[in-house]
Write a structure and sequence with these properties.
The complex is a heterodimer of chains A (121) and B (108).
Chain A lengths: L2 E4 L3 E3 L5 E8 L8 E6 L5 E8 L4 E4 L8 E5 L4 E6 L8 E8 L8 E4 L3 E5 L2
Parallel strand pairs in A: 2-11
Antiparallel strand pairs in A: 1-3, 3-8, 4-5, 4-9, 5-6, 7-8, 9-10, 9-11
Chain B lengths: L3 E4 L2 E4 L5 E7 L8 E6 L6 E5 L3 E2 L7 E6 L2 E6 L9 E6 L11 E5 L1
Parallel strand pairs in B: 2-10
Antiparallel strand pairs in B: 1-3, 3-8, 4-5, 4-9, 5-6, 7-8, 9-10
Classes of the chains: A mainly beta (121), B mainly beta (108).
Chain lengths: 121, 108
């Protein structure tokens, strides 16, 4: 069974750093793109970027590039997204999701349960 | 970046009725790479449709997708109680793979 399990909710202060994780299981981890999607309170889904675990090829939405970093540790089947300096506007639910096939241009067929990030002074 | 617009913002219908949701792009979607997701509070989104009209694994046939170029439609032929949710379209033909703002289907 394909599963993506995300790390737990986080409460941080502005300016702090944060890394959240997404561990994949039940499939050949290296060969499926995994992406991150943001949902701010009361808003729609936003595609942040994706990574191909096998070679760490990473593509970002220009709206997020420079503010987040997506990385992978193949040895533990885990993808990360990290912030070096959080802002209050980063408060949101963050989902990881896997592409349906090995293609770059593809849909997300399996999703993590979401990680709520709250940034408040 | 391709911008997707969904209409209506909210659709109020009764169980058993037909729902027609629209997704429009500000430029042509490459290869009609347009997907639809269902999203319920407290749950992760669920893939319904890919490639504009392909039904994802396990999705009931009351869900259907159509359209091409810039105009796409998700149709739910007869609403079941579990179908009341938010529906979002996503284009994955041109990076960044943007989502629409969503249409909420609620109970009338």
């Amino acid at each position: 069974e394909v599963q993506l399990v995300q790390s737990g909710a986080e409460v941080k202060k502005p300016g702090e750093s944060l890394r959240i994780s997404c561990r994949g299981s039940g499939y050949t981890f290296n060969y499926y793109w995994i992406g991150w999607v943001r949902q701010m309170p009361g808003k729609g889904l936003e595609w942040m970027g994706i990574i191909y675990p096998d070679d760490s090829d990473t593509r970002y939405n220009p709206s997020f590039q420079g503010h987040v970093t997506i990385s992978v540790d193949k040895s533990i089947r885990t993808v990360y997204i990290q912030w070096s300096s959080l802002k209050a506007s980063d408060s949101a639910m963050y989902y990881c999701a896997r592409h349906r096939a090995s293609s770059f241009r593809d849909v997300f067929d399996f999703w993590g349960q979401g990680t709520m990030v709250t940034v408040s002074s | 970046e391709i911008v997707l617009t969904q209409s209506p913002g909210t659709l109020s219908l009764s169980p058993g009725e037909r729902a027609t949701l629209s997704c429009r792009a500000n430029q042509s979607v490459t290869n009609n790479y347009l997907a639809w997701y269902q999203h319920k509070p407290g749950q992760a989104p669920r893939l319904l449709i890919y490639g504009a009209s392909g039904r994802a694994t396990g999705i009931p046939d009351r869900f259907s997708g159509s359209g091409s170029g810039t105009d796409f439609t998700l149709t739910i032929s007869r609403l079941e109680p579990e179908d009341f949710a938010v529906y979002s379209c996503q284009q994955y033909g041109s990076s960044p793979f943007t989502f629409g703002p969503g249409t909420k289907v609620d109970i009338k």
